[in-house]
Amino acid sequence: MITRPCIFWGIDDYASEIVRHFVGSLQHQNKWTDVNVAFDSKGDNPVAEFRNTLVKLRESVKSQNIPDEPRVLLFSASSDPKGKTGLDLLKQVSQALEEILPGSQSMILIALFPPQTADDREKADSFGYFFELEKIVYEIPFLNLVFVNQLPTDLNSNSAEEDVIDDIDDALCELLFRELTDKDLDNVIQEFGCPAIRNRIAVGGRRCCYSTAGAHRLIYYCNECVEYLETMFQQQLFEKGFMDIASISDNRGKLAPIQLHADNFVKNEIAHTESDIRWDQLHLAHGLEQLLDFEGMEDQIAGFEQKAWVQVNRAISEIKEVPESLRKRIRQQFLDHLGASPEYLAGGKLYMEALQGRRIFSPEKEDEGQLSGVDLFGLFICINPFIQSAQKVLKPHIREVLLQSEVTVNPKENEDFAAWLVRLVDHAKPKIQGLPVATASHANFLLQSTEVIVEHLTKGFLDFPKATELMTDLISRFSEEAEKLRKIVEGNREERKEAEKQGPGLKREYGVFKRVLSKKGRREYKEKKADRRKRTENLDKELDASRESFNKMRDLFVELMDNVIMPHIIRAMLNQAFREEVEEIATEFDRFVSAIKESLEETWSQASKITKFTKPTAATVLNKSILDILYEGILDQRNMSDLAKESLEFIPPGPSSDSDSEIEKLSYHGCQDIKDHFLAGSRSLIDRMEGFAKKLFKPIQKKNILDIIEVEGKGAAYKYLKDRIESTKKFLDFAPGFIPFVEEQGKMNSILVVRTAKSIGKRLESEYQSKDKSLLGREPRFIDNKNDDVIDMTCLIFGFPAFLVHGLSECRERYYDMEEKDSADLWPVFGTPTPAS
Q: Do residues 425 and 447 lie in contact, with contact meaning Cβ atoms separated by under 8 Å?
């Protein structure tokens, strides 16, 4: 809050904008009261308006029984063209104070010095402003102080017509608040600042009437510091304790048991699955044979595929509990591994990768290409049985087609199944192409069956849809061949009917005379009768051959369906169930891990910003080095694996009799290992890590700001404090050449006011000031603010001459260049001293 009622008046256009922003800052910080006025003249007689405002304010103050009379705070920009003429208002304001406020008049002038980016005109005007102010400063009654503050660069304006200044530097607002309205500093300012004008102090013939301030607030954000350390620990606990994939991947001793566990489980599941299927109940031969009768072939082919699927679905329904049982065993095995794994989440991740097919470990003498997980399961459940059964069915049929051929029917050494089929098909094609159409159905279907099998072998056939696609393709090829054969048989029977009709017709054609009495007629009749009989016999042989070919084709088809395709569909269904369950668990597990990781990253993105807080007037004492030292001090060289184990045993202590009921509400209540956390959800492990981190880093909360500053050692702490204190003296840039000259005169006072907890102040005095009197200055003032997380320093500098302001030297040069005057000067009357080295 502001110490006493005040009128804030910017007496030129530029200064009035500064006042507006400063007042807005006070209001935003709830430091503004209804007995303060931001005065802004709108008419032609600003002094008259000011008098009226002052009278009203005094009446309001008295009505509220406030003992202090209003103080007038005049803001003036030295670079504003109206600034110099605005100085004329000082005497009129002083006169109004004498008439309206008898006995306790107070007026402070705030001279706003331009930044380095000011143009030549503004610099020349600034010198003229201080030159004119110097003439009258000691002659104005009730002018207690003249504060000089340098404007920030971004507030420089070259145009008087600019409507507003959109932003005001935080540092300037902070300094103005401390100089003008800070209750803690007001007594020091009145004690040391007012004498600079009241005693008419001078150096080198120039008036030492100016004052300024600098400030720096050191802040220890205790809660944020602890949150940073806790969050960093949780991230490292997750990455290096629970999910340390990298280190495990380099450790064969840890990888081997995970891979062995996955291999043993898959091998056990292969045996278990084989024993679960009652293959003797799944044969389709009888049902399919009844669907495929040569005599009724014409009516059966159209609906055959649908009827075949009925047989397939019946067989699948017989083993529907097998894949479900397989899925349950896979999930339970994963949970058992997760609960027992000493590598926690990383062990679970690697185990699932092994089940997904990545071989995470192989002995040095073992084939590096050895299969793992789903690939190993698929090899023994699908691929090997399929190849063995297909070879067994196809080999005798191929041997029959290649009868008397020199081709070796048995596979060659290192010849895979697909290559074996392709080789035999290439040799069989010429023989098949030479067969009669009616007898080629079996051979053609054999050829097409092998081509279908080779096609599916090369494009993948280990899941249920691909396996059924294989069956569909095989049925389709069988149907096509059966349809061709049906058309041949139909044509055969039509020809047979025609031949049978020709018997009676032939007798009628030749009659008794030609057949008996005519030698020629008798010969022709016998020849035609023999031709008809031979054609009928050939048709009968063709029909028998067609029947035989169909029966062989049907037998091959039934054998393939019964012994190869149907078992493969069942096995593919089981293989797909295995693969899908593994993928589903892996996806669930990845989501679980990702949820934890994303939550920690989000928290860390906020917590890590703590070291980035810095302003010209305030900064955190925390840095990466200090935080790392605090972090390592708490961990005390314990490794993350041990801390992970300890965290899984963590239960927060209960302070009351209701602690048991409170513990039951915890998201990780009842979770004893990673498996339990996986089942309970990612939030349970996140909450547990957070609770464990809070317990671990609780000692940090006992440290105060000086403890934190001293973390890197007393030497580093001293240097840090000295640098921060020195920074409070540099908000107004002083000319280094004049500083020794002014200090030798002993006219300028520099007071450091430190606001912090009493205990911190005592330590600063006893441990730092006692060793180096120059650190805190000759007469530091300590104010107990009851806050051991803050060291707030304000450097108040009173009684310096205008020529000590560094930028005024250039302003002086611009003034001489533009005003063509040689009599105006603010420099010491005996000349400029030699700058100090």
A: yes
Q: Helix, strand, coil % (nearest 5) of the chain?
A: 65, 10, 25
What are 796's strand-pairing partners? 213, 751
Residue 836 has what pLDDT? Answer: 39
Supply the DSSP symbol for 560.
I
Q: Residue 232: enclosing H or E segment and its boundaries? A: helix 222-236
Are 263 and 376 in contact by the 8 Å Cβ rule? The answer is: yes
- Residues 414 and 522 sit within 8 Å (Cβ to Cβ): no
SS3 649: coil
Structure-block tokens of residue 471 = 């069956």
> What residue has token string 């056939």?
461
d(C-alpha 377, C-alpha 379), whole Å: 5
DSSP string, 754-812: EEE-HHHHHHIIIIIITT-HHHH-SS-EEEE-S-TTEEEEEEEEEEE-GGGBTTHHHHH
pLDDT in tens, 466-477: 888 888 888 888
3-state secondary structure of 180: helix
Q: Extract the residue ranges of the chain whose pLDDT is less than 50.
A: 156-167, 368, 657, 833-837
Under a CB-based contact definition with an 8 Å cutoff, are residues 216 and 728 in contact? yes
Task: Yes or no: say if 194 and 145 are a contact pair by the CB < 8 Å rule.
Answer: yes
Residue 266, helix vs strand vs coil = helix
Tokens for 832?
Answer: 């400029």
Question: Quick one: DSSP state of residue 734?
Answer: B
Radius of gyration of the chain (CA): 51
- Transcribe 357-376 into DSSP letters: T------TTS-TT---HHHH
| Dist CA 461 CA 711 (whole Å) | 66
User: What is this structure's pTM?
Assistant: 0.78
Nearest Cα neighbor of 387 from 563, 126, 649, 612 is 563
C-alpha 441 chain-centroid distance = 64
Give me the amino acid identity at 160: A
- CB distance 123 to 810 below 8 Å: yes
pLDDT in the model for residue 165: 39
